[in-house]
Write a structure and sequence with these properties.
The protein is an alpha/beta fold. It has a single domain, classed as Vaccinia Virus protein VP39 (Rossmann fold), CATH 3.40.50. The strands form 4 sheets. The protein has an 8-stranded mixed sheet. Helix 2 packs parallel to helix 3, helix 4 packs across helix 5 and helix 5 runs parallel beside helix 6. The C terminus is likely disordered. The chain binds S-adenosylmethionine. The site of S-adenosylmethionine (SAM) has 20 residues, from strand 12.
Length: about 270
């Protein structure tokens, strides 16, 4: 039984102001990217969201901020970097700059190489409390004497720690098997949310998505036995998140052991009924 399994409809800054200090273990979220998509005219107040997230996460807590930049008047906006620097100015550590590599591109542009990635900034409030590093990269040194000593790491097992570029097939059928997820214009892959929740939290921890959209983070938190709170300003998306979470009741997440994220055809995990 979850202690928290709430989906709150409202402007996230106003909602977050009602949360106590040092309350949340992990935030996994993706804000609207520049003005790439209009969410029914809503805007968000980045600086106040960032301040509230800093206040409400526990010491040792993590914020996973998945973001990309629009290109306007011939230049990428750099919003993602500005946001990362702002989080750091509040006192969060930039624990890691990870990359979400997609299998396909959304906005092809004949003047540039196709953009197939977004940033996944991992911020921590002090030293992270939980780092369950996923080890599913086949270790080419297995069975060889000495193992891999690079950087002081000695990985002798069959599988080593993942690299920090995570590749997920995107688009329909890959992002989610749920048809209803695509009632939202921009769900991120379930496996992306799942892998961050596994990495940075433990069972019964409290996970927040303050831009919950179709409820991807909340669904995966529930399946992984975490408590969760989602916030979205759209009533339609709050209802969608609730349906998605409720229908996740009978699914259990299964890891296909030992597959590398680096391989283009690798889906890594499937959700089995
Ligand atoms: C990029 S989408 C998130 C998608 C989500 N990761 C998923 O997998 O479905 C951003 C969401 O933020 C919501 N949003 C925008 N401004 C907001 C605000 N001020 N307060 C709360 N939600 C907001 C939008 O309605 C939209 O659903």
């Amino acid at each position: 039984m979850n202690k928290y399994s709430s989906i709150i409809c409202g402007d996230n800054v106003s909602v977050l102001k009602g949360f106590p200090d040092n309350f949340i273990d992990l935030v996994v979220t993706s804000p609207p990217y520049d003005n790439l998509r209009s969410y029914k005219g809503y805007v968000f107040d980045f600086e106040n969201v960032a301040k509230e997230l800093f206040r409400i996460i526990k010491t040792g807590g993590i914020v996973v901020w998945v973001v990309g930049d629009a290109t306007t008047k011939g230049s990428e906006t750099g919003t993602s970097f500005k946001q990362a620097l702002y989080f750091m100015s509040l006192g969060l550590n930039l624990h890691d700059t990870m990359i979400y590599e997609k299998s396909g591109m959304a906005f092809p542009d004949s003047n540039r190489y196709h953009n197939v990635f977004e940033y996944m900034f991992i911020f921590s409030k002090g030293k992270p409390s939980t780092t369950n590093i996923i080890k599913d990269r086949p270790n080419k040194w297995v069975g060889k004497s000495g193992g891999n000593h690079r950087g002081g790491l000695c990985e002798r097992g069959e599988y080593g720690a993942r690299f920090n570029i995570w590749r997920y097939p995107n688009g329909r059928d890959n992002t989610s098997k749920d048809r209803m997820a695509f009632e939202h214009p921009a769900p991120f892959p379930e496996s992306l949310a799942r892998d961050h929740i596994i990495s940075w939290s433990n069972e019964n921890d409290l996970v927040l998505d303050p831009f919950c959209g179709s409820g991807t983070t909340l669904k995966m938190a529930k399946l992984l036995k975490r408590d969760f709170i989602g916030i979205d300003c759209s009533e339609e998306y709050c209802r969608l998140s609730r349906r998605r979470v409720d229908e996740a009741e009978n699914i259990r997440p299964v890891r296909k052991q030992g597959q590398s994220v680096a391989h283009p055809d690798n889906e890594q995990l499937s959700l089995l009924p």
